[in-house]
Design a protein that fits this description.
With about 260 residues, this protein is an alpha+beta fold. The chain has eight helices and eleven strands. The strands form four sheets. Strands 2, 3, 6 and 9 form a four-stranded antiparallel β-sheet that branches. It has a three-stranded antiparallel β-sheet with strand order 5-4-8, with no helix packed on it. Strands 1-7 form a two-stranded antiparallel sheet. Helix 1 crosses helix 6 and helix 5 crosses helix 6. The longest helix has 11 residues.
């Protein structure tokens, strides 16, 4: 666990594959609030525009040709084209990285990308318990509550799909897939699941491809799988009244399976 935690907090450098475009130099940069593995305090940027239907028939998450940005175009949304300072364009990239290893690689978008949103990194503490829940349980909960369970590919297991449960769009079913995505999209480090660079602008000579020659994905996943669930807060008179209130049973959250019946014990 100490080795895995060290990899999770390790500061990466361009010589080891960081960038050329990235948001953070270590996993702990984005997952550190209260404890390593917690949520983030700074946001990343997602951008794009209304598509007028050209992606309406896409099954985005299952299209391996677009794997470089797993929050990209789908439905009526077209992911942005990231424009680098040197004029290079990276199409179908909703994630607009805020940092780069050189000025030529700095990303921005044009005025055509009229949809944008900031996102905080979510906590990964205790996520192994979520990973261990059988698909059948999620499917039953979705049916019971009128929701939808999204089936997504397990990147490390070709031709396998499971219920998505990690990431802002539930785009990953396993923590190994999630780690590969974050390592590439947030830090620019290519790996066995995401082997192709978004850009090689300013990349130092001699950088191996894929960048993750030490197979750090194994330890990043091990760290997340070894963390425990954060403790719940104290039950006070105020919170106990909220739990027992009619609104907690029948309020607007009831229909999506998040009413407080789930959080009493």
């Amino acid at each position: 666990m100490d080795i895995a935690a060290g990899i999770f907090s390790e500061i990466e450098t361009p010589e080891k594959g960081l960038g050329p475009i990235f948001n953070a130099t270590s996993c702990a940069d984005c997952h550190q609030n209260m404890a390593m593995g917690g949520g983030g305090q700074t946001t990343v940027l997602r951008a794009g525009h209304v598509s007028r239907g050209e992606h309406s028939r896409d099954n985005y998450l299952h299209d391996s040709k677009r794997r470089s940005d797993t929050n990209g175009s789908s439905g009526t949304f077209t992911a942005a084209t990231a424009i680098l300072t040197n004029g290079d364009a990276i199409p179908d990239r909703s994630l607009i990285n805020q940092r780069a290893i050189c000025a030529d690689a700095q990303s921005h978008v044009t005025a055509a990308e009229n949809i944008s949103t900031p996102r905080l990194s979510l906590s990964v503490l205790g996520d192994a318990f979520v990973e261990a829940v059988p698909d059948a349980t999620f499917l039953a909960l979705a049916k019971q509550n009128g929701g939808e369970a999204i089936m997504v590919p397990v990147l490390e297991s070709p031709n396998t799909s499971e219920v998505g449960r990690f990431g802002w769009k539930n785009q990953h079913a396993s923590l190994f897939s999630f780690a590969g995505d974050a390592y590439f999209n947030e830090m620019g480090i290519t790996n066995e699941l995401f082997p192709d660079e978004a850009t090689t602008t300013c990349e130092p000579a001699g950088v191996p491809h894929p960048n993750d020659v030490d197979h750090d994905l194994v330890n990043l996943t091990l760290f997340m799988r070894a963390t425990k669930v954060p403790p719940r807060g104290p039950i006070t008179l105020a919170t106990s009244k909220l739990i027992d209130s009619p609104q907690s049973r029948t309020g607007p959250t009831h229909g999506v399976g998040t009413n407080l019946d789930c959080h009493e014990s």
